[in-house]
Write a structure and sequence with these properties.
The chain is α/β, with parallel strands linked by helices. The chain has ten helices and eight strands.
Length: 231
């Protein structure tokens, strides 16, 4: 059987409340893509909810970078798409990616829109998209895609607890500029709304600035609220 064009790699942790609806929205892709869910040790029903709706389910050490690298290693697609569990793709995603790759792109990302009722979230998304075009750096919320051969050439995601998307993009843009697709991936605004939009914006600016000046990503992850998986 020939390898699929696209492998969609979805890292999860305790996403039982919404994973079924997110995966249902991806079922139309399954003729052109394989769906791989990489769980980081959920203690809810994420795995049970997801199992009928994915092509492969992988258990991996907790941490997005570790989980996404595990999914990439288990996948077969020519192009890898890394999709956060709280992010939805545009209906045109597969065709948009294929067209970008056919036009010579080595990697890329979508514009992003943030779900939520706070009016500032629209501005946050616009600034994210503008900054990404200027810097050639994408966030994981923008559904990064990359040709497998380039992903392997740069060594995959650095195995760090936070800012792994920024670190990957820095590696990738040494070889090629990203395709910045105008179609929007839609990501949940739950973190902004839970912790307050302005406090979350300030926190993310501080974390990004600290990372730029060389702060340890593992320490930044603790400030962000991540915790390592206990085995």
């Amino acid at each position: 059987m020939p390898a699929p064009f696209l492998s969609v790699i979805i890292p999860t942790l305790n996403e039982g409340a919404q994973i079924r609806s997110r995966l249902n929205a991806l079922q139309a892709l399954r003729g052109r893509a394989t769906l791989l869910l990489v769980d980081g040790g959920s203690d809810d029903d994420t795995v049970e909810q997801a199992l009928p709706l994915v092509d492969q389910l992988i258990d991996a050490p907790r941490g997005r970078a570790l989980q996404m690298n595990a999914g990439a290693a288990a996948s077969r697609g020519e192009v890898l798409l890394f999709l956060h569990a709280d992010t939805s793709l545009p209906a045109s995603a597969a065709g948009d990616i294929e067209a970008a790759i056919d036009a010579g792109a080595q990697w890329g990302r979508f514009d992003v829109r943030i779900e939520g009722t706070h009016r500032l979230l629209l501005l946050v998304a616009r600034l994210m998209n503008w900054r990404s075009r200027r810097s050639q750096i994408a966030t994981g919320d923008q559904a990064i895609f990359v040709r497998r051969d380039l992903f392997e050439r740069v060594g995959g995601y650095p195995e760090q607890a936070l800012m792994e998307d920024i670190a990957l993009c820095r590696r990738l843009k040494r070889f090629a500029a990203p395709a910045c697709l105008r179609a929007c991936a839609v990501t949940s605004g739950r973190r902004w709304e839970k912790h307050g939009v302005l406090p979350t914006i300030v926190l993310m600016w501080r974390l990004r600035a600290a990372y730029f000046f060389g702060a340890d990503p593992d320490q930044l992850a603790v400030r962000y609220g991540y915790a390592p998986r206990q085995r």
